[in-house]
Amino acid sequence: MKKEQVVNCQFSVWYPIFKKHTIKSLILPLPQNVIDYLLDDGTLVAPEFPEFNSKVLKAINTLGGCVFPKLNWSAPRDANWIALNSSLQCQSLSDIFLLFKSSDFITHDLTQPFLHSSDEDSPNPAINYELVLRKWSELLPGGEFRCFIKENKLIGISQRDYTQYYHHISKQEAQICHSIQEFFSQHVQYQFLDEDFVLDVYRDSWGKVWLIDLNPFGEVTDSLLFTWEELTSGNSLSANQEEGDTAQQEAPVFRYTTSDVTVQPSPCLSYRIPRDFVDLSTGEDAYKLIDFLKLVRTSAVVFTQFKIATGLL
């Protein structure tokens, strides 16, 4: 994975190419003072961003009033536990700030976007950071899949939420695999800037496939039910194929959790404790506390969570 591949996987690069096959989104340049705020844990003064706040609210309203936020590459999936109903749904800039300042994924985007690049000795490309707001859509975890593309060929498909067993996946394995292959060959193959990349898709209850995200083909991206050694080696991935069956051999390997026995804890659990509760209860991150208190004014539920987090309840 080279730095150029990371740059090409920025949302603002791939979204114009695949706009009609993904969720409606708006992109706002992220001001430097907002970036500084997201990275700063020290000051006790709550900054105000009236101009940026106005732009964000306008964009949110344009997208229907609720959005899913992310930066150039990452969404704050590791911070959803701190939000209302453990959801990444946002209706204001305060909602977004609370998630972003609690997320290691967001910090990675801002501080180490080229981690694990093979050309680490080359100069880092300049990055213009952006706030991406996506129209809120209720995506069921059992419909999310990660696709691994090597030399413009779909070589592997993994269940995205591999920590859970979904009966419909094993029941509809052939249909799911076929619909993803068809979507890839008709709308994605040879259309992207790189020949190696990772594609996140969603298959809805009608069998329609949507593009959700593009990621670099390398260790910075979670390989889920595969290993990067498997994916990057010159050997074919292991699958239940019969020798001589050319059609089967050309099909991607599809891996998913096969029973309740193999269910695992979510990897995002490791991000929940103690960093953010400690920051809130000790006041070490004043901004995070202030953002939390802003939400308190509009929600009794958040106030209850805050009292529990700080030991007041």
UniProtKB/TrEMBL annotation:
Stored InterPro entries: CDC123
Pfam annotation, one family: D123
Any GO CC annotation of this UniProt entry: cytoplasm
Domain of life: Eukaryota
Function: ATP-dependent protein-folding chaperone for the eIF2 complex. Binds to the gamma subunit of the eIF2 complex which allows the subunit to assemble with the alpha and beta subunits.
Family recorded in the similarity comment: Belongs to the CDC123 family.
Protein name: Translation initiation factor eIF2 assembly protein
